[in-house]
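User: Hello! I'm new to structural biology and keep hearing that structure can be predicted from sequence alone. Could you demonstrate with 3-hydroxyacyl-ACP dehydratase FabZ? Please show me the input and the output so I can see what each looks like.

Assistant: Of course. The first part below is the input, the amino acid sequence of 3-hydroxyacyl-ACP dehydratase FabZ. The second part is the output, the predicted structure written as tokens.
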Amino acid sequence: MEYNINEIEKIIPHRYPFLLVDKIIDGKEGEWAKGIKCVTANEPFFQGHFPGYKVMPGVLIIEALAQVGAVALLTIDEFKGKIALFGGIKKAKFKRQIIPGDVLELECRLTKRRGNVGFGEAIAKVGDQVAVTAELTFFISD
């Protein structure tokens, strides 16, 4: 499974400045996806977070992970054309700061599904270093 930015925009509704995945580089539809976000100093959130010390907000890293998980989930035939909303975040751990120049590797593995609710384990890395881990819950909506 590989999707460029134009294909990602056909799956999830996010757009600039809130689309936080540049490319899906691997995965299996309905099971897992791996994407990348090339973090640049031009990101609008760096204007205020923080002047003189640019750090990507943790909540946006979680959002980027959720967008990758949403791609995995919304490629299931029964969910195509729908929207994946956050249902919950558990056990989020922040282990490394993300700064301009980092290539953020984002992976979400779907662990379980009950009807329109999906659960996933997510991990964000820069190279071999783990930056963020979390358990995510998705709710599929029309």
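User: So the tokens describe the shape?

Assistant: Right, they're a compact way of writing down the 3D structure. Reading them back into a model, for example: The chain has a mean pLDDT of 97.
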